[in-house]
Amino acid sequence: MSAKVQVSGLTKSFGGTTVLDGIDLELPPGSATAIVGASGCGKTTLLRLIAGFETPDSGSVSISGQQMSGPAAFVPAHRRAVGYVAQDGALFPHLTVGQNIAYGLPATRRRAAIRRRVADLLETVALEPSYASRRPHQLSGGQQQRVALARALARRPKLMLLDEPFSSLDAGLRASTRKAVAHLLATAGVTTLVVTHDQEEAMSIADQVAVMRHGRFTQLGSPREVYRYPVDRFTAEFLGECVFLPCTVSGGVASCALGRVPVDSAVADGAGTLMLRPEQLIATEVADSERQTGVGTVAATEFLGHDVLLTIDLGGDITPITVRQHSIEPPPADAKVHIDVIGGGVVFR
């Protein structure tokens, strides 16, 4: 049975410095939530408060309707049915990998059943069963982190807290491991909260994403919502590359150097800054510059394999913009290009 988590008005300070400032967060049963933010913004502190490793200054944490931290109660960490994977793994150095993973499993389970469970968990985190006999110091940092993840999964927790769980893995293994772990947790119905600085990782595995800054959430919503419709410039830039253009809004349309771009009809008329994502733009080489609106010059290209980044000078006082598109025959440097815009934009003031 998965857990519903309710965090209300959570605050925490260390040495007079406020780390969390009135955090509200709800994790629906069986959902996956990712928190992203810069180092020191309070992400790990929030996880530790939910896990029961720290006590809040005010506010409450409830799991499955039971208050775990708050004015009326404090339930110790070991009684919260919560799995926790720290950034450094925190394995027991005197135990083997198999013993680390099996730590906390019921002593009544037969040895053969424990060995099978350990082997299954090792396979889940992309390690061979032979690793069960090794010691933590014989593993790489990435391997240690995967063992820590397997250990947390062993007890089949109702709530899983992951603090940068894939940060020490190489790019290829990181993608495959996070996909396997996300599938495992979703299949098991485990409510999951993951902290990461990797925006792509957060949006790929989460049902909802929270962006944190200075101990507060700037925005909480679905991955698509926070990426495509950020509430402010900080959130927009933190989640990915942006194109910013001065514009004038009239009747739900922003007029800018790229032409007329639809925006939310609720946006008030007047001057503003239009935000687009680089992948919303398509640059097509043109023979001349007869079409004045949306025409620029390719100032630089950056080949990234599957796609290419084009830096395009629109002329005048406008800062050059970035276009991301497929790397198959992109416009060359110094080429004149026309830029088409896919979808709408967001206006900041």
UniProtKB/TrEMBL annotation:
Alphabetical keyword list: ATP-binding, Cell inner membrane, Cell membrane, Hydrolase, Ion transport, Iron, Iron transport, Membrane, Nucleotide-binding, Translocase, Transport
ABC transporter domain ranges (all copies): 5-239
Top-level EC class as recorded in UniProt: translocase
Pfam family name, one: ABC_tran
GO cellular component: ATP-binding cassette (ABC) transporter complex
Keyword Metal-binding included in the entry's annotation: no
Entry EC no(s): 7.6.2.9
InterPro entries noted in UniProt: AAA+_ATPase, ABC_SmlMolc_Importer, ABC_transporter-like_ATP-bd, ABC_transporter-like_CS, ABC_transpr_FbpC, FbpC_RD, Mo/tungstate-bd_C_term_dom, P-loop_NTPase
Bilayer-crossing regions: none
GO molecular function: ABC-type ferric iron transporter activity; ABC-type quaternary ammonium compound transporting activity; ATP binding; ATP hydrolysis activity
PANTHER family for the chain: PUTRESCINE TRANSPORT ATP-BINDING PROTEIN POTG, SPERMIDINE/PUTRESCINE IMPORT ATP-BINDING PROTEIN POTA
Name of protein: ABC-type quaternary amine transporter
Originating organism: Mycolicibacterium vanbaalenii
